């Protein structure tokens, strides 16, 4: 089998920035607990029939708590797949994964969009976003009835929450805020999962990004690594353009630095990373971007790219890159069998395209799957109505949940929420 460093295809090799100095060889990491759900095969291209419909707006986040799927976004009403009455829901609702039944008692009144969700202990869920009531931007809710867990209190000020990751008794919070509770924190914080108290020992601070004030867009974690992307040039003063890895054991920025996202894309996108996910074993992660077409250049605009989590050194290069040829990717889910990507793309395998299908491009409207080893598109091609794009994936044992702003998935009506079953 070819080595990981030899997996970049000739078509994409020209898009990668040449390193100024060789990176040090990565040490073999110890065996880690799973970062996510492993799926041994690619999911079916035929969506299940039971997922409820979101009747307006957009879905941007999922969390699984037991057998309950919590859905967040910006919307006002939902309806079960079998029909029935329109159910008012203020930017968050929940349904049973097995039956699709909307939970009648989970109906929190959040007055702004929900951008991030994470499962909590004891049948609870954390929700983050730009709402202001009943608590500013971050709340913990009981799934059984939607009531706030009053013992958890971590109001966020000076901005919003865009990403949440829970690891055991700690909750990592990312966004564009300036303070959590009474503690100054720029865009990134760690709080006690039970109480919301800010951890004084975790102070990793993103510096301002190309678009202005620092912001964290996406995060993913295993026990000893937290991967973050967003609008920043530095982490704790160390150069980390838009992407960085934090060593959670040491509590500091890891010896992991790439210049892959230092180059500018179109002026409309001063920062352009939009999503990331770790492999189930935590050994690699995949980043997706927007940015505008940039064929035959060293830019990773409108792309998916794999990086090795435990690589070390300067100017680390992606293992592979898959370019859309000019369309944004917003979400990614890595399951072991596949790397699922979603946005409003028309193609994958398109390094020579510029809002066009270049040589070798394959049609993958709005959703596609990539081979984790080779970086080439898999045959899986259910299609979806493109719209703005897929803003949320969640891989679960039963399949792959998809959240977006459109109503057609796999050639069927599935309004803003759908699931491809595991095969």
From TrEMBL:
<protein>
    <recommendedName>
        <fullName>PKD domain containing protein</fullName>
    </recommendedName>
</protein>
<dbReference type="InterPro" id="IPR013431">
    <property type="entry name" value="Delta_60_rpt"/>
</dbReference>
<dbReference type="InterPro" id="IPR011047">
    <property type="entry name" value="Quinoprotein_ADH-like_sf"/>
</dbReference>
<feature type="signal peptide">
    <location>
        <begin position="1"/>
        <end position="20"/>
    </location>
</feature>
<dbReference type="Pfam" id="PF17164">
    <property type="entry name" value="DUF5122"/>
</dbReference>
<keyword id="KW-0732">Signal</keyword>
């Amino acid at each position: 089998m070819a080595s990981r460093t030899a997996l970049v295809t000739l078509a994409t090799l020209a898009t990668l920035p040449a390193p100024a100095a060789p990176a040090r060889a990565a040490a073999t990491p110890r065996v880690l607990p799973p970062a996510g759900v492993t799926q041994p095969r690619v999911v079916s291209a035929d969506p299940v029939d039971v997922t409820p419909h979101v009747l307006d707006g957009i879905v941007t986040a999922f969390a699984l708590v037991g057998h309950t799927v919590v859905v967040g976004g910006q919307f006002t009403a939902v309806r079960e797949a079998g029909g029935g009455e329109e159910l008012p829901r203020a930017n968050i609702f929940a349904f049973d994964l097995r039956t699709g039944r909307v939970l009648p008692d989970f109906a929190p009144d959040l007055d702004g969009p929900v951008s991030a969700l994470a499962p909590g202990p004891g049948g609870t869920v954390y929700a983050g976003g730009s709402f202001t009531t009943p608590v500013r931007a971050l709340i913990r809710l009981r799934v059984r009835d939607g009531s706030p867990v009053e013992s958890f209190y971590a109001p966020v000020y000076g901005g919003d929450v865009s990403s949440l990751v829970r690891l055991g008794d700690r909750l990592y919070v990312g966004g564009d805020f300036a303070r959590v509770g009474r503690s100054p924190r720029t865009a990134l914080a760690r709080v006690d999962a039970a109480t919301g108290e800010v951890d004084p020992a975790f102070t990793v601070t993103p510096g301002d990004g190309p678009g202005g004030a620092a912001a964290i867009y996406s995060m993913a974690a295993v026990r000893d690594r937290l991967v973050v992307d967003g609008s920043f040039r530095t982490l704790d003063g160390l150069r980390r353009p838009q992407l960085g890895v934090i060593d959670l054991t040491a509590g500091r920025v890891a010896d992991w630095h790439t210049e892959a996202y230092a180059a500018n894309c179109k002026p409309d996108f001063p920062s352009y990373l939009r999503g990331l996910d770790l492999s189930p074993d935590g050994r690699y992660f995949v980043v997706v971007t927007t940015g505008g077409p940039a064929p035959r250049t060293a830019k990773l605009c409108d792309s998916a790219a794999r990086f090795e989590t435990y690589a070390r050194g300067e100017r680390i290069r992606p293992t592979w890159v898959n370019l859309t040829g000019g369309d944004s990717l917003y979400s990614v889910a890595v399951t072991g069998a596949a790397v699922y990507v979603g946005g409003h793309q028309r193609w994958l395998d398109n390094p020579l395209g510029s809002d066009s299908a270049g040589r070798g491009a394959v049609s993958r409207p709005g959703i596609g799957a990539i081979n984790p080893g080779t970086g080439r598109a898999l045959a899986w091609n259910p299609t979806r109505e493109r719209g703005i794009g897929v803003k949320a994936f969640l891989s679960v044992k039963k399949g792959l949940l998809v959240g977006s702003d459109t109503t057609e998935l796999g050639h069927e009506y599935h309004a803003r929420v759908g699931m491809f079953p595991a095969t």
